UniProtKB/TrEMBL annotation:
It catalyses: uridine(32) in tRNA + S-adenosyl-L-methionine = 2'-O-methyluridine(32) in tRNA + S-adenosyl-L-homocysteine + H(+); cytidine(32) in tRNA + S-adenosyl-L-methionine = 2'-O-methylcytidine(32) in tRNA + S-adenosyl-L-homocysteine + H(+). PANTHER family: TRNA (CYTIDINE_URIDINE-2'-O-)-METHYLTRANSFERASE TRMJ, TRNA/RRNA METHYLTRANSFERASE. GO terms for molecular function: RNA binding; tRNA (cytidine(32)/uridine(32)-2'-O)-methyltransferase activity. The keyword Magnesium does not apply. Keywords: Cytoplasm, Methyltransferase, S-adenosyl-L-methionine, Transferase, tRNA processing. Residues 4-153 form the tRNA/rRNA methyltransferase SpoU type domain. It holds the Pfam family SpoU_methylase. This is tRNA (cytidine/uridine-2'-O-)-methyltransferase TrmJ. Its EC number is 2.1.1.200. InterPro entries: Alpha/beta_knot_MTases, RNA_MeTrfase_TrmJ/LasT, SpoU_MeTrfase, tRNA_m1G_MTases_N. The keyword Cytoplasm applies. The gene is trmJ. It is found in: Cytoplasm. NCBIfam families: rRNA_methyl_1 (TIGR00050).
Length: 241
């Protein structure tokens, strides 16, 4: 779905580069800057450095003079405002609102205010929703790039996310006979090293049996455990070297 990230009057070139990086890792590349502090912000060294390889996002980014130019062609505008307004669009968290938006919108713009003063009321009022990121009540100040990263992640998630390689299937657990054979081997070894008194075994072996039943060792792990038992027997002089 066409998605545009719009920075209104950004004042730090490093933040612009970091925003480009945040966008790229979530698969977005349409960035528009409205009246930035620096005319050469997209090529300033700090922006390039903070982009950390997302230079193609900077290369295709556009600078415009007005917000009207920035939102041209979009049908849904989302403000990002941490402070609720008495008047204006409804306020919602990205997690609750964006999944509903993903199935209906044709072109979405996410608007971010200046680092110095946030979004102006008049810019928020023209939006369809004000997205607020849940933060700690006593400190809700998010860096511009951090806010973009959160919104970009939540929007990508709402659009279906990216596939994750499935984990390799877990190896099958060893059967009960293999576990019993390993425990018999361990019982011999524990007696040999003096850890288990065969005259007063108490419940050591049943407890170990329960432990390994919970652990569900694989045949390879049973082989390792039997190797440990063999080494204990050899150390105690009871096994063949």
């Amino acid at each position: 779905m066409p998605t545009r990230f719009i920075l209104i009057e950004p004042s730090h070139s490093g933040n612009v580069g970091a925003v480009a990086r945040a966008m790229k890792v979530m698969g977005f590349d349409d960035l528009v800057l409205v009246a930035p502090r620096w005319d050469d912000v997209l090529t300033r060294q700090e922006a390039v450095d903070r982009a950390s390889g997302a230079t193609e996002v900077l290369a295709r980014a556009r600078l415009v003079a007005t917000l009207d130019e920035a939102v041209d062609g979009l049908d849904v505008l989302c403000a990002t405002a941490m402070t609720p307004r008495d008047f204006g669009p409804p306020t919602a968290t990205p997690r609750e609102h964006l999944p509903r938006l993903a199935g209906t919108a044709q072109g979405v713009g996410f608007l971010f205010g200046s680092e110095r003063y946030g979004m102006r009321n008049e810019d928020v009022y023209r939006c369809h929703v004000a997205l607020t990121i849940p933060t700690a009540p006593d400190y809700g100040s998010l860096n511009l790039a951090a806010a973009v990263q959160v919104i970009a992640y939540e929007w990508r998630l709402a659009l279906g996310g990216y596939g994750v390689e499935p984990a390799a299937p877990a190896a099958a657990a060893a059967d009960a006979q293999a576990v019993a054979g390993m425990l018999a081997h361990w019982e011999q070894a524990l007696v040999a090293i003096g850890f288990l008194d065969p005259q007063a075994p108490k419940k050591l072996m049943p407890r170990l049996n329960q432990l390994f039943n919970r652990a569900q060792p694989t045949p390879e792990e049973i082989h390792i455990l039997r190797g440990v038992a063999k080494a204990m027997l050899q150390a105690a002089g009871r096994g063949k070297p």
